[in-house]
Specification:
The chain is α/β, with parallel strands linked by helices. Helix content is about 45%, strand content about 20%. The protein has 13 helices and 11 strands. Strands 1, 2, 3, 4, 5, 6, 7, 8, 9, 10 and 11 form an 11-stranded mixed beta sheet that branches. α2 (about 50-55) links the parallel β2 (about 35-45) and β3 (about 60-65). α5 runs parallel beside α9 (about 250-275) and α8 packs antiparallel against α9 (about 250-275). It is globular, with a radius of gyration of 20 Å.
Length: about 350
Amino acid sequence: MARSFVSVLIDTYNHERFIEQAIVSVLDQDFPAADHEIIVVDDGSMDRTPEIVKTFEPRVRLLRKKNGGQASAFNAGIPECQGEIVAFLDGDDWWAPSKLSRVAQAMAADASVGIVGHGIVNVQRDRREQVETLREGFRFQANTIAGALLFRRRGAFLGTSRMTIRAELLRRIGPVPEAIEIQADEYLFTLSAVLAGAQILPEALTYYRLHEANSFQLASHDPQKLRRKQKSLAMLASSLSQQLEKVGIDPQVRRAVIEYTQASADQLRLVLDGGWPWETARTEWKIYEIVHPEARISHRLFKLAILLAALLTTPRNFYSVQRRLAQSGLYRRARSRWLPVPEMEHIQKDWHAGS
């Protein structure tokens, strides 16, 4: 079976503590060096990131640009890629040694597959590792209602350091709107999964590092970072809706594809700016139904009771109380014992001590 030439595109910003491990994890792949290239786009780092990247030249090519966010980094790097497929990696994550071999094999085996993802190892701040892999629903295309419903609960397996996309498909999608400063990967993987087949491999091939400077998985309630995230999510939902309409996707399918992203943007807006109590209840219930469609009736009744309480206070008060409860060890223990958060049945989660 012919093997495709692969471009590895690493986007990075102020990752001096992490970028060496990211690059080494690519250099250590069980994949011929002659069959791939490595391009690092430095998005205006103010630390030693570019200096560290340069130590890997000429095996690694460094592109430097002014800071503009993830979308601008992708737009700078993608046109420079010479590969038939492009594998993306954030500068603070790293790969398992078989990553490129596995995704290249999947692409070569089926020409209808435009994007490949896989499981993930979430590396916690205390170095414990939570492995997440998919149990079922490995193949889909999000251009029908059934495909969209599969896609929106599997997007986590298609994020930046997991997604590998055919270069032809990336050219068809075109540049990412640069107002999407974070979560630009979702723009690419959503349109890829709508326009072509998506495949998720059953093993975990990426290590996703949680740390204090994450742009999406925030370590604390930081209004400035939350504002940036909210604006990016709102622009992402709007841009995706427009693009899906342009390519002729049915309105019902469009709604199913972007509903969770729009609800997440609405939730952050209510956290930051407030609004009407009924907006809190509507948004929270929408997110709940998407994330936990298989929840037991007891848990659904508990959620409805919470949302009835939400109707009696402002959104800011509701989310403030929610944050305080989340920080309470007593509350967390009680919830864990008597009414735990429903597990997502299609995802296998395992904990390891870490290295």
